[in-house]
Structure formats: C-alpha cells, structure tokens
Predict the 3D structure of the following.
Amino acid sequence: MSVFRCTQQHGALLGTLVVALLLGLAGGVAPRRGTVLPLRRRDGVWRTRGLLRNASLPLHGAIRDYGYFYAAVSLGSPPLTFAVIVDTGSTITYVPCSSCASSCGPHHQGQAFDPDASTTSGKVACDDYLCSCGRPACGCSPDLQCTYTRTYAEQSSSAGVLLSDVIHLQDGAPPVAVMFGCETRETGEIYNQAADGILGLGDSPVSLINQLTDAGVIEDTFALCFGGVEGGGALML
C-alpha cells in the first residue's frame, strides 16, 4: 500500500497537489472500471493512471483547534454519517455502538450506530475469517462474537465488537461491504473528544484501505492532504 501526505499552503493548490501525487504512482495499466487520467512523466513520456473509484472525502478539523483532522463517513443501510479521525497509525475503524450508552463519551458529533437498525449489518463470529484485528489480536465474547481492544499512548482506549456492514464512498457507485468496530466502551481522550471514532488507515489487512483494496474496489494507493494548522484537506481513494 502506498500513501502520500501533503500540506496545503494556498487553497488553489489542494486539488493540484492531490492529483499530482496520485498520478505520480502511475503504472500504465488500464483500470477495470473507473477513471483514467493522463500522466506526463519527467522524461516527457505520456502514460495513464487508472482510478478504480473516484472518491474524495473532505477533511475537517485542525491541529490548532481540535488536535486532529477528521472525515465524514457514512455506514449502514440506511446510511448514518460519523465524524472519524483519519489516523495512519491505527488499523481498525470504529464508531460508537448504540449499546455503549454512558460508557461512550457524551460529546460525539453523530448518533450511535445501531446494528439492528441497519438492514445490511451482520455480527462477526469468533470463527469468521473477518475476525481479524491485527495487533493486538481479537478476542471473543461469551456469545461468540468477535471483539477488539485498542489502547493508545495517552492511556485512552476503545473496545467493542466487530460488525460487517457497508460504507458509502459518496462517488455515485454502490456501497461496499467492510468490517469495522462498534464501540461498547471508551476511556480517556477518546471518551472526551468531539469526533465519533477513528478511521484506521494503517498498513494492516484489517485497515479500511486494505479491505477496499483486497475487495478490488480501489487501488493500493491513496492520497492524504492536510491543510495545515488552520484545517482543511482531503482524503482521496
């Protein structure tokens, strides 16, 4: 998986920088579907770069005001939108579960995810191939549902169950089946933060990016542009 980061000094540069970084990884192979963009290499040779999906998620927040950048992602059927922190150091994507109640923080921006209200949601059993958490490994609840736990350097933590459902990439194409965490407990900064959860972009088979790559939905490349201390930016898939 390849990831590039850039910073935005002027608003007009953002689109150019993102496209340039994506094009810079051209392999010259025509995509199975999606968008084909022209690429002129430094040696003057023109080639093409194929994008399976043409999805762009605007980034919000700022280091100065929030301490993080976040994107809005829509999960489930009907879709619910959550504000999730983009984190290349995390491997699991998770949002608060409706069963979390007071064990999850009161300051989140969106409503909790209710698996029973989504027509495409399913539990991940302990013996399911989707029960994969990277490190640390998954656990198993008394009712044999796959569980996860994550603890961070500042001693905050997130724990919950794994679900299978769909994510809407906001590019006009059908939603995609993914696995993500449904939180049943938060502590520390995760409990207190305004964002709903984490968008795991780390290099692990269970990260959202690698799930989409393995499913043949996107290439194994994405661009992540941060808009500096004042905020803004984009995540392009």
In short: The CA atoms of residues 82 and 111 lie 8 Å apart.
